[in-house]
Design a protein that fits this description.
Largest sheet: 2 strands, antiparallel
Strand order of the largest sheet: 1-2
Distance between the termini: 43 Å
Number of strands: 2
Radius of gyration: 29 Å
């Protein structure tokens, strides 16, 4: 019910409102109703998605990995805020402002429209249609409304400017929409360049507006998907690295199967996975919390996989993990009736695991 109210109702109300405005040139809803719809669509929906649905970090193992690169979120959020401010100024004015102010406001509106169209592809059609299409329609409505306001006021002007920059801005604002829209798009570039220069003072990069989309996983414009190709979600990353060291040190026992992939298992990896299985059975909430944060370790390891592929590095990780392995083993022997059976069945094929588990827990 909450999902329906937050997403479907704004989409339906704004779609009907937009079609009615195109046909009649008038608002369908009373002013207070329009303000409520604008507040929910422009503020409520984005905040709900960013704070509740979307993950704030890149994560190969998450279905809601960050839509904007964490390192460049300041750039994307600053742009969104400026677009919303442009909309707010535009929707509360009933007549045209100064020519330069009108140009800046309309550039901000067009930027917001383009940004939401890009998000249609970036985050997927279904969530974007529910969340971004209503916002895009509102921005498009304001652009159309501003054009009509200017045309209506221009008709009542007795003396049209005939010289200087004021003359060209006036003519530009009075041009048809099909002429103004491409020009506004070109004007977006110098305005974005000025904003980027300001953001450089806060640690952003010159291409942050682009990298906010591309330095992500599993989205439309993402270019980091290759970093997730060999990530085994839910695996023991540190122990898996440790098992790849020199055989005389890490002492591999056998091969195992994890998510259809063949992996090399040593005692440390089997004990760690057995302990996680026990924790998942006895303390599922604690296990979910630990697993969520431990998956971030996998991202860091895979990001620098060339380092962790070195056998000497794996040897060091193996030695460092030894105290933790002993701790896991002690807890297994304290809490499990047949700890060695649990350890032995880790990473076996599913059918073999089932047989060994049935043997360990006879009815």
């Amino acid at each position: 019910m909450t999902f329906f109210i937050l997403f479907w109702i704004p989409l339906l109300l704004i779609s009907v409102f937009f079609i009615y405005y195109i046909v009649s040139g008038k608002r369908l809803y009373p002013l207070w109703g329009l303000r409520l719809i604008e507040l929910v669509s422009l503020v409520g929906l984005p905040l709900f998605y960013l704070l509740v649905v979307n993950d704030q970090e890149n994560d190969c193992c998450s279905d809601s990995s960050a839509i904007f690169s964490p390192a460049h979120q300041l750039s994307s959020y600053s742009l969104i805020v400026l677009c919303v401010i442009s909309y707010g100024v535009s929707t509360f004015k009933n007549r045209i402002l100064s020519p330069l102010s009108e140009v800046l406001i309309n550039v901000g509106l067009l930027t917001g429209l383009v940004l939401n169209m890009l998000l249609l592809y970036h985050i997927g059609w279904f969530p974007a249609v529910l969340g971004n299409v209503p916002i895009a329609l509102l921005f498009l409505w304001q652009l159309m409304r501003n054009h009509r306001l200017f045309v209506n006021e221009w008709r009542n002007v007795v003396q049209i400017p005939t010289s200087g920059l004021y003359k060209w801005i006036w003519r530009f604002l009075n041009a048809p929409l099909w002429v103004k829209m491409p020009a506004f798009l070109l004007l977006c570039l110098p305005i974005l360049a000025v904003l980027m220069c300001v953001l450089l003072l806060f640690g952003q990069q010159p291409d942050s507006f682009i990298r906010a989309f591309t330095d992500t996983y599993q989205h439309g414009f993402s270019q980091w998907d290759y970093m997730c190709e060999n990530v085994e979600c839910g695996g023991h990353y540190l122990c898996s690295v440790a098992a790849k060291g020199h055989k005389d040190i890490v002492k591999p026992i056998r091969y195992g199967e994890r998510r259809g992939h063949l992996i090399l298992c040593n005692r440390q990896l089997l004990v760690s996975n057995a302990f996680e299985e026990l924790m998942e059975e006895r303390c599922p909430r604690l296990h979910a919390f630990v697993r969520k944060h431990y998956n971030k370790v996998g991202h860091k390891i895979h990001k620098y996989y060339t380092v962790f592929d070195n056998q000497w590095v794996s040897d060091v990780v193996f030695i460092m993990m030894k105290p933790l392995e002993w701790f896991f083993l002690i807890l297994l022997y304290l809490l499990d009736k047949k700890p060695e059976n649990r350890i032995a069945r880790q990473y076996l094929p599913p059918a073999d695991q089932t047989k060994l588990k049935a043997y360990s827990n006879p009815s």
